């Protein structure tokens, strides 16, 4: 795709803000030039139907074209999109901003600035200032899983490293998140509300209790973006499984039964096959595999007991 004389550079370019999403930057230009955001995008890329499409996937040619018209480096344009985020992490990118940082919330040139991290289902802290993120336009209520804060931060970092830098340990952290949100039929309870239980509840027992009143807030493995009040539980679960190694997945399976267990076993089989090659995982396996689950969790959480909710 070559640029031609009709694709003139914009006479004035607004500086992008740190972590700003491409569509936000284009929308600010649209306001400046008194046109619509889509018209501004299509001035560069006539074939693109939506700003969301530009945020998610841009080819190298498309990046170069936008960079040319806005007189900016292609790497800067690319870095404003989700283009480099691997498929495994993409199901944790929301379709709209879910959270924001009260310290970093701001506008530029009279227009609101939307950040990439506002869409990330694994974030609980602001990547710019480290502050706690809050649900956009909603109430977060009391923190339910404060006792897991340290592990949750570790899980956040693991998921972020996978999404932003392609770094995995013995298994993809976002795959663990998917596994942990699978339904679980508890072996211990004769009567149960099946939709209220997830695999994650084995690792974070507080979750089972919370879910009795918050079932509607549980997302599915296909769309694992939790509300901010529940997110630390999932992040902590990811960190605990990552550190424990493959044996933890087998232990989780032992807490399930019937069809439910068969589905889970089948889901972890592929993951375990892939992890056999990893030297790091076998070392972790030796360290963690001989301890009971409760002691692994306690060790992971440090000396701090889980905070009660209510
Ligand atoms: Zn911030």
Would you give an account of this structure?
This protein has 310 residues and is mainly α. The N and C termini lie far apart (59 Å). The protein contains 15 helices and 4 strands. A hairpin with a 2-residue loop joins β2 (107-108) and β3. It binds zinc ion. Zinc ion binds at residues 101, 103-104, 126, 128-129, 131. It comes from Endobacterium cereale. Residues 11-130 form the TniQ domain. This is TniQ domain-containing protein.
How does the SSE layout of this entry go?
Blueprint: H1 22-32, H2 37-44, H3 51-56, H4 60-69, H5 74-79, H6 87-90, E1 99-100, E2 107-108, E3 111-112, E4 134-135, H7 149-165, H8 173-180, H9 200-203, H10 205-214, H11 231-244, H12 246-253, H13 258-275, H14 279-288, H15 293-301
Antiparallel strand pairs: 1-4, 2-3
Helix pairs in contact: 1-2, 7-11, 8-11, 12-13
Bound molecules: zinc ion.
Zinc ion (ZN) binds near residues 104, 129 and 131.
């Amino acid at each position: 795709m070559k640029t031609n004389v009709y694709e003139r550079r914009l006479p004035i370019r607004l500086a992008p803000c740190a972590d700003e999403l491409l569509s936000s930057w284009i929308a600010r230009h649209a306001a400046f030039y008194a046109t619509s955001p889509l018209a501004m995008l299509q001035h560069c890329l006539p074939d693109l139907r939506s700003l969301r499409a530009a945020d998610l996937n841009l080819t190298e040619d498309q990046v170069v074209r936008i960079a040319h018209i806005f007189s900016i480096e292609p790497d800067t344009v690319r870095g404003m999109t989700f283009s480099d985020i691997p498929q495994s992490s993409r199901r944790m990118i929301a379709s709209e901003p879910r959270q924001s940082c009260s310290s970093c919330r701001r506008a530029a040139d009279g227009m609101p600035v939307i950040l990439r991290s506002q869409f990330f289902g694994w974030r609980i802290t602001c990547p710019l200032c480290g502050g706690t993120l809050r649900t956009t336009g909603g109430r977060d209520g009391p923190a339910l899983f404060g006792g897991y804060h340290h592990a949750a931060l570790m899980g956040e970092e693991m998921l972020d490293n996978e999404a932003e830098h392609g770094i995995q340990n013995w298994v993809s952290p976002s795959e663990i998140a998917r596994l942990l949100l699978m339904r679980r039929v508890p072996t211990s309870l004769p009567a149960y509300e099946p939709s209220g239980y997830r695999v994650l509840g084995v690792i974070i027992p507080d979750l089972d209790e919370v879910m009795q009143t918050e079932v509607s807030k549980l997302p599915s493995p296909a769309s694992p973006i939790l509300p901010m009040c529940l997110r630390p539980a999932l992040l902590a679960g990811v960190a605990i499984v990552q550190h424990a190694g493959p044996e933890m997945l087998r232990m989780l399976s032992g807490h399930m039964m019937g069809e439910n267990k068969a589905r889970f076993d089948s889901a972890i089989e592929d993951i375990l096959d892939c992890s056999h090659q990893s030297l790091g995982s076998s070392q972790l396996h030796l360290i963690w595999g001989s301890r009971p689950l409760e002691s692994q969790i306690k060790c992971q959480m440090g000396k701090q007991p889980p905070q009660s909710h209510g």
